[in-house]
Amino acid sequence: MPQPYDLITMGRIGVDIYPLRTGVSLAQVDTFRKFLGGSPSNVAVAGARLGLRTAVVTRTGQDPFGGYLRRQLREFGVDDRWVGEVAAYPTPVTFCELFPPDDFPLYFYRLPKAPDLEIHADELDLDAVRAARIFWVTGTGLSAEPSRTATLAALNARTGGPRTPTGPGTPTGGPGAAPVPGAPERRPVTVFDLDWRPMFWPGGDTDPEAPLRYREALAYATVAVGNLEECAVATGEREPYAAARALLDAGVELAVVKQGPKGVLAVHRNGTVAEVPPLPVRVVNGLGAGDAFGGALCHGLLAGWETERVMRYANAAGAIVASRLACSSAMPFPAEVEEALALGEIPDRPEPGLADGPEPGSVKQTAQTAQTAPAAPTGADA
User: Fold this and answer.
1) Which of 34, 81, 268, 334 has the most crowded CB, counting CB atoms within 10 A?
2) What are the C-alpha distances in Å from 160 to residues 126, 142, 163?
3) Residue 364 class from Cβ within 10 Å (0-12 exposed, 13-18 middle, 19+ buried)?
4) Calpha distance 301→305 (Å, rounded)
5) What is the pTM of this model?
6) For 274-285, what is each residue's pLDDT tens digit?
7) Could you give the CA distance from residue 15 to residue 38 in angstroms, rounded to a whole number?
8) pLDDT tens digits, one per residue of 112-141
């Protein structure tokens, strides 16, 4: 039997097209670069950079951009065997604007429909999904059929059915606290990235079905990851500790609440609580920081580290990507994360070719022109 994958992710993929000028609108930009994008695809790349054997389940259009994405996955060390083509729809593209340190508007072109929402349940390799050490899905996969049914089918195959919440999972104590009585036995790691993108849902910001679908997926997951806005959609709670408790009550064992400049909160059903501050960084592009966080989270969980160490490592990985223009190609290698942790901040290093401000021609260097921010906004991705 083939060796199980360390990490299989499922969901969105596309081409990120980023401007090579910061601080101006797209109307003023005339030079761009393209990159592999899409949150679960970036998470697979981030995991591969950290030494994990990864694969992604997704779909592209039957077009040159689709070919580009499959080639990029292979070059990053991600298995593309489950990346199919959908002739009816074009490969999505996403544009962004760069207004560091904390404003990165996104413009998604996923019409009439994105191929990655055309994953069918009967196309899934459920044996591989079951065998993977970590399986990762996102909220976007629940926004339309047939992806919704396929996502839930994969989760069901992974876990053997939804877990019925056993009542409040209110955390008490700190690291090393005794397990909560009645806690479920250990299950394979299944991560639900809340990944709230209202523009993908029929009802937008107020779509009434989204919270219901999120609760349905949470019943299968062992880990939930999201920023405060995403947690509010999934649980109705915006206060970090209340959101974490609500995620535990929904069935997960580890709730990870990303707070941007305030760092990250992680609460485990066994009572462990870790609240980790961010690393200082000069932000160039906050998009993709959350995906680097996700890949590093998987790395730390598979390594068996204690919760606080996992969060510190993931925070550092996210901050490194926030200091760079790209997402996928910016994912850090282990030595880079260890360096950042040792320094207590993200080193300032030149990134040639990025112009700053409305006047063309000036070469931007990350350390000199990005505004100083206290943290990587780890809740964002393209």
Assistant:
1) 268
2) 12, 19, 9
3) buried
4) 6
5) 0.89
6) 999 999 999 999
7) 8
8) 999 999 999 999 999 999 999 999 999 999
